Amino acid sequence: MPTTTSLTTTYAGELAGEIVAKALLSNVSAGYVTMKPNVPYKSVVRKIDDTVTFAAGTCDFTPTGTITLTERILTLEEFQVQRQICKKDFFIDWTTADVMSGRVNTQIQDAIIERLTGGIAAQNESVMWNGVNANAGEYDGFLTLIKAGGSGAVSAGSGALTSGNIIATIWDIINTANSAVKGAAEKPALYMGQAAWEAYMQAQIADGNGWYLTGGPEVNRRFVGMYEIYVCPGMAANNIVFAQRSNLMLGTWQENQMNEVFILDMQNLDGSQNVRYGARFYLGAQIAVGEDITYWGA
């Protein structure tokens, strides 16, 4: 009787949450915002602003200044990814020796998990900026939240971003922004998509800053030496966000026991060469203080 190679593997609960969390952290933009790894479905997001004032010294305790506590609700959405592939498509990638030694089982599982987490990361790179909760498979992304009526975020205008106008546009955004935010200990950063970043580099090269032509990955991503520039591949074109990292929050529920990452070999169930795999997980985004965010884009 021939040996059956089973690929069935299931990771559940917190372990699956850890796999998904690693996938999220691997997408570029997640490294530029504040991650909330264990949001229990809904969580009150708070940000404290403390206006410190001095008073003349006395023997009494007399509170002064203003503390503003802002609250928003970070709500997670449940998502799933389900896929099916044929094992024959994988076997061509390994030699006969691999199959005979039994290593193929582990290698295929690793390849499937890598493919799955890579897909989650790539999709979330776009959804975390542009997602709309009303669309299937999406939650409200940062651009949606920022531009929503009543968010409090400040618009500096809109229009196409080109090498001819992007530097002036960035100055418009900075000049429109709240002075207290620009002077805060946590400096705000400029968030922009790949096309906007390339337009910015072209503008610098045109102005004689050749470092942007030859610097490669080491090129300086800071505007006038003060504000970090975060290049976010998933952000829609012609958008720039000027915000503090602590003001943009991405949440997941790593400890939820409903988290699942699975690989299911269908051979013993229906005689096919198919392998089904998928994941179930939770995601959501929220901004803290809209008034501290300035943006460009329609």
Structure description:
- This protein has 298 residues and is an alpha+beta fold.
- It has 2 domains: 9-50 and 67-141 and 250-287, Major capsid protein gp5 fold (2-Layer Sandwich), CATH 3.30.2400; 149-246 and 292-296, hypothetical protein PF0899 fold (2-Layer Sandwich), CATH 3.30.2320.
- It is built from 10 helices and 14 strands.
- The chain has helices at 13-26, 88-91, 96-101, 103-130, 142-147, 166-176, 179-182, 194-206, 211-214, 267-270; strands spanning 9-12, 34-36, 42-51, 66-75, 77-86, 154-155, 189-192, 222-223, 227-231, 240-243, 248-252, 260-265, 274-287, 294-296.
- Strands 1, 2, 5, 11, 12 and 13 form a 6-stranded mixed sheet that branches.
- Helix 1 (13-26) packs across helix 4 (103-130).
- The longest helix has 28 residues, at 103-130.
- Residues 1-5 and 97-104 have low confidence and may be disordered.
